[in-house]
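REQUEST ID: PR-0412
SUBMITTED BY: lab tech R.K.
PRIORITY: routine
TASK: structure prediction, single protein chain
INPUT:
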Amino acid sequence: MTTSGFQPLDHKRLAPDVMQSRAQALLVEAQQRRSVRHFSSDPIPDGVLDYCIQIAGTAPSGAHKEPWTFVVVTDPAKKKAVREAAEEEERENYSGRMNEEWVKDLERLGTNAEKEFLETAPALIVVMRHAWQVGPDGERQQCYYTQESVGIASGFLLMALHHAGLGTLTHTPSPMGFLTKLLGRPTNEKPYLLIPVGYPSEDCEVPHLTRRSLEQLRIQD
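STATUS: complete
OUTPUT:
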């Protein structure tokens, strides 16, 4: 949380060639990140998720409120309960909540209402967004730009998990309110993202996709 006062910034300016090589190396690594729907049940080494969550916690946030909690679910019974509740919502989505264009766009990704990965993956990380926070005396305190802040932290988390050698999936079984109750979280915490995490299975396949080029991404003004 925010502390009073200021301190000198610990920053080292890098040589241009070092900057280029580091940026290029990170791009190569980032280009290998893919959404994974087929996981091995092999356990994740101790401490890896903790480091990755701490990396997510370095993300900037509105007024440094850090409006996030990362709930790690590894208990098989709890993962099964998450899957059952998520699939119930997804069946509703595929049978009528999502319009025809939405369903068609998902066809090329090979996804449907069945979410086996929620049980197969050794861990689920549920990112919770703080709509507000509770002060030391129980008073309700404001948070600012929580959607943006938690979105940035989630991006940090996904890249950290990829860098650590793990596969991930951004799963959003909308609506996700069932997660607050199922995980026993306070009402100020709203489910933002459900991320299965683990090693991709040996027979894992992903859709053949292309990403937009730099010319499409960047506009020089």
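NOTES: The chain has a mean pLDDT of 94.
REVIEWED BY: pending
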